[in-house]
Amino acid sequence: MFNTPIWGPAMTDLLKLENVETFYGRVMAIRGVSLSVLEGKIVSIMGSNGAGKTTILKTISGALDPFKGSIKLDGNEISSQDPDVVARMGVAHVPEGREVFSLLSVRDNLMLGAYCRRDRGAVQQDFEKVLGWFPDLRSFIDKQAAYLSGGQQQMLALGRAFMQKPRLMLLDEPSLGLSPRLIGEIFDIIKHINREEGVTMLLVEQNAAVALETCDFGYVMETGRIVMEGDRDRLLASENIQEFYLGVKDEGVREERRWKGKKTWR
């Protein structure tokens, strides 16, 4: 297991989990997980189905209560807080499956994201930003979200979360069910929101190639535990990651991946 890198003296933990355990009924889905998300960074959690990735996000956002452990946002304990309290503290959760309000218009879905905001002028500016990022949404602005394709619904869910003006965005499988072209578009906007808008990201993603191309630091989970961690380049250089998550078995191909990662993915 790799040690968390030091990004610099100005970097601080925006989110920190220590020894968190969460149950689904009688099943322990999260087993003593500790992780941190540095402010301004994109951190990914990778792993197969059932590893516990979604449970972590639900525990952070308040949808599930942890059995034990500590969850701190900017040094403040938020474990077992109700989801609306966590949201008001600056955490936006984009759940797996999008979960847009299908009977409401695209406009109303976006504005619901800004429900707790009082800076109305800035809300309108952010509304226009979202439509600039996702022009497809403008075409459906006054139509029910049910008429959107899966990719457009993912755009809407991401835009709705941004309208909350969050400090931290929790993204659960944003590539799920999307074509490679749409995945590229969605992740370009995710990186833009992080770099240009200053929103910290915790990304859960089964597509390890996409996650590693996007993140600064990553964790790998198996059966509720973190089994590996490291910055992007270290994970890309790991033979276990290359073989089991990127599908690379040939040593020559692995070496090419290492070179490509150092050259283009910094």
From TrEMBL:
The keyword Nucleotide-binding applies. The keyword Nucleotide-binding applies. It comes from the Bacteria. InterPro entries: AAA+_ATPase (IPR003593), ABC_transporter-like_ATP-bd (IPR003439), ABC_transporter-like_CS (IPR017871), BCAA_Transport_ATP-bd_LivF (IPR052156), P-loop_NTPase (IPR027417). One of its GO terms (biological process) is L-amino acid transport. One of its GO terms (molecular function) is ATP hydrolysis activity. This is Amino acid/amide ABC transporter ATP-binding protein 2, HAAT family. Pfam families: ABC_tran. Keywords: Amino-acid transport, ATP-binding, Nucleotide-binding, Transport.
